[in-house]
Amino acid sequence: MRSPSVFEQIRSEAPQISVGMLTADWMSLGLELKLLENAGIKLLHFDVMDGHFCPMLTFGAPVVAGLKTPLLKDVHLMIDEPLGKLESFVAAGADIITLHAESARHIHRALQTLGKMTNANDPARGILRGLALNPGTPLGAIEPLLDQVDLVTLLAVNPGWGGQKFIPATRQRLSRLKEMAGEKILLGIDGGVTRDNFAEVAQLGADIIVTGSAVFDGKAPADNVRFMLNILKR
Ligand code: DX5
Ligand code: ZN
């Protein structure tokens, strides 16, 4: 039997939490990821920043490749002109690749190109094509791209750092986006999601909720995700 595509997997188990590993304790990452996996996490979120598109510089494809995990790799590219780098992230095992609408002069072409690529882990899985919008980008930017995306993610913070505060206007933007996107597109929300606002964010109806620093708050990552997953089960 064919394994389910990434799209089918997420759709059937939505909403899912994608854990941002930027603020993890990298010295104990292997152990922590195992605990998250045992708690029921399926997605690992990689924040790739180039110091141009956003102020911080994080890591590139070799780090995505080097992290061996059965979790699905959810790669968020906050880099200028990502087209030429797509192949290296696909080769690194990305299952989801999200590009920023603001990051490329020819974003349509970048998404088209991504649409022709094959998942390096398992061709049957496909690669989920994501489009992210900064908090200052009008939602209308997605309209000409709707047939080229599987996921639209709204940033609830400005890209660049973990641990920022959730921008309240994101709530309204997500409900408008829902009307625009229709049934065939998954919705994501990224940034500023904490234990305190998790229940409220979950109510907004995104399929993928990204949370990073609130999981790796230095205490107990697995407890934090269990707390969040329990809210989703209610
Ligand atoms: C914003 C990134 C987010 C962010 C998530 O630059 O795209 O993924 O780091 O981290 P928290 O959950 O700490 O806001
Ligand atoms: Zn992100």
Query: What Rg is obtained from the alpha carbons, in whole angstroms?
Result: 16 Å
The global form is globular
Q: What assembly state would you assign to the polypeptide chains in this entry?
A: single chain
Approximate helicity band: 25-40%
Distance between the termini: 32 Å
Molecular structure report:
By secondary structure, the protein is an alpha/beta fold. It contains 8 helices and 8 strands. It has an 8-stranded parallel β-barrel with strand order 1-2-3-4-5-6-7-8, surrounded by 4 helices. Strand 2, helix 3 and strand 3 form a beta-alpha-beta unit. Helix 2 runs parallel beside helix 8. The longest helix is centred in the last third of the chain and has 13 residues. The model has no long low-confidence stretch (mean pLDDT 96). It binds D-xylitol-5-phosphate (DX5) and zinc ion.
Q: Which keywords apply here?
A:
234 residues, eight-stranded parallel barrel, alpha/beta, 19% strand, single chain, 8 helices, binds D-xylitol-5-phosphate, 8 strands, binds zinc ion, globular
Spell out the blueprint of helices and strands.
Layout: H1 6-12, E1 16-20, H2 29-39, E2 43-49, H3 61-66, E3 72-78, H4 86-91, E4 96-100, H5 107-115, E5 128-133, E6 151-155, H6 170-181, E7 186-190, H7 198-203, E8 208-211, H8 221-233
Parallel strand pairs: 1-2, 1-8, 2-3, 3-4, 4-5, 5-6, 6-7, 7-8
Helix pairs in contact: 2-8
